[in-house]
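Appendix B. Raw example, untouched.
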Amino acid sequence: MKVKVETYGCTMNQGEGRLLEEKLAALGHQIIDDASDADLIVLNTCTVIKETERRMLKRMADLSAQRKGLVVTGCMASIQADEIIKAAPRALIMAPRDYQRFPALMEEQFGCGDGGVVLPSPITFVLPIAQGCVGNCTYCITKLARGTLSSYIMADVIAQAKNGLEGGARELLVTAQDTACYGFDLGTDLPDLLNSLTGLPGDFKVRVGMMNPDNLSRIVDRLLPAYTSPKVYQFLHLPVQSGSPAILEAMNRGYRPEDFISLSERLRRASPHMTLATDVIVGFPGETAEDHRSTVEMLREVRPDIVNVTRFSPRQGTPASLARNQIPGWVAKERYREMTKLRFEISLEINQAMVGKRERIIITERGKEGTSIGRTSSYKPVVVQGLHPAGSTMEVEIIRSAATHLFGEPR
């Protein structure tokens, strides 16, 4: 069959979508890019906010009306089966924790092709390392979908990484709901995994995905030495969500604003050029003007390179969705606009300071209008003129900047 795996959402989903493609190809099915030409669609869903959920349901309904074969995977498959059936009554549903049964289900329902194939590795290879997390944030539907922490056996993760690198990958994107808690259930930890990954032969980089401050605090003494490897991007995604102690407590985040500030300072002392990314939710139930101002002031103090701003979205089944003190939409929009303006101001100032510097970048993708995009050692995107081979490296001088990226000229 001609199969399109259509993936939405986080890096974890992207990595799992790739694994599903590999399983289908091994059964002899043809993986294609054009959904309109597919016999079967695997819709790998995201449901992190209400707007995304609506998009997913509309897409299911559209595909169902086309009478294509449809398998729904991802987070919606875990917790919203009833909604899926309403939108696409004939769809097969498979939750992420059941992916080990995916090949058997596909063979049973759709048969096999004439001989399996091995897909070539992408330049950027997503490496999932765990399902679930150890937190209980009051707003998070992902915890309901993914459950408690279940780390993947390190030997299996390393074997996947080897396969990716041997297939031509130049980047390994280590991903989980919270990478900092990797191995807590196995008697190991993220630093051990990083040391094993960077010990593999080859010229490649490892980017570590999101980690929560409370769990990073438990491993930071061992993580910082692992980050000194030249194979590790000096990039860390540390979501704070709010600068208000009261809101963090209502979110059940397990740390205080000063903990986030202290961790950020320590990370930057250890790696002055580190790219620090964070997340902020505005309009959380009960958030006062003073709470919002605390978040603004904290961002001004810490000055993260990247701030992902999201308006609170009540998700069914989470405690926060039942809170009585919901914030009016127009208030949340105003706070979102202010926070977005601030994040671009900070990012632009940081990036402007890089103009004139020289960087070695790995070309990772095509850009717009005859350009290529590469990544610096701190994972900052650099746009260069010309179509350069993905995976190649070059020395560039940063000639100008924008809030979200840099512009380089080969040297």
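End of appendix B.
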